[in-house]
Design brief:
This protein has 230 residues and is mainly beta. It has one helix at residues 7-32, and strands spanning 43-57, 66-80, 86-105, 108-120, 129-134, 137-140, 144-157, 169-180, 185-187, 193-205, 208-224.
Length: 230
């Protein structure tokens, strides 16, 4: 009768087989997944979700002054690194402005509810604004173009229809495309978030007011764009 192999020998043989198999498997995996030789994306469109604040100042006797949370919204920025410096183009800007202002002058109170969608009328490849990215900051060459506002405004109280205030009740609001000031966009190190300090978006003497908007963006989508053929 053949002699039975020691149990320890069987264990050592099995462990060696497992180690050899693991080494072989690693070799196969490494061979099956070579490093990518694709060039980095030179042109990228990034969509950011927006939150924002709207500040109203310079109203008569300060009656309508205040800061309001607005939004949501979005911007789309195209980053183009094909030239010696990285260019940025604002392709889309959309922001919901829904807020209520309650003002009191002496013994009279007036409530104005605004519900407006601010959008851009331009469409890619046309840009709303252009700038340069340097040191994690986009500095715009000029004002945003083709920005329009559509929605409604509701006024209730003594001042409705007076001193440039909207008429009493609900009114449609439509502002033809115009330009809008932009402050620099300051980005985080990974370019996934940014902030813009307050920029003046409207100013008037009737009714007397100055309106400013600040925005914060968070990346929600990114896509590589094929550059146009020369």
């Amino acid at each position: 009768m053949p002699r039975e192999a020691p149990r320890g020998a069987v264990f050592r043989s099995s462990r060696s087989t497992l180690i050899a198999g693991a080494i072989l498997a690693c070799g196969v995996q490494a061979h099956a997944a070579p490093e990518s030789n694709e060039p980095p994306c030179a042109v990228t469109d990034v969509q950011y979700a927006l939150s924002a604040s709207l500040a109203i100042t310079n109203t008569t006797m300060g009656a309508g002054n205040g800061v309001h949370r607005i939004g949501p919204g979005r911007v789309v920025i195209r980053f183009d690194g094909r030239s010696g410096h990285r260019r940025a183009s604002l392709l889309a800007y959309d922001l919901r402005q829904s807020f209520t202002v309650v003002s009191s002058v002496l013994f009279w109170a007036t409530t104005v509810k605004t519900n407006v969608q601010v959008t851009t009328s331009t469409r890619a490849p046309d840009s709303v604004a252009d700038g340069t990215l340097e040191d994690l900051t986009v500095r715009w060459d000029g004002r945003a173009r083709g920005v329009r506002s559509d929605g409604s405004i509701e006024c209730e109280g003594w001042m409705c229809g007076k001193f440039g205030a909207p008429p009493s009740g609900m009114s449609e609001l439509h502002v033809a495309p115009t330009s809008m000031a932009l402050e620099p966009f300051g980005f985080s190190a990974d370019m996934k978030t940014f902030t813009m300090p307050y920029a003046v978006v409207s100013e008037s003497d009737a009714p007397r007011h100055r309106t400013l908007v600040s925005i914060s963006g968070r990346e929600v989508q990114r896509a590589c764009v094929a550059p146009p053929s020369s």
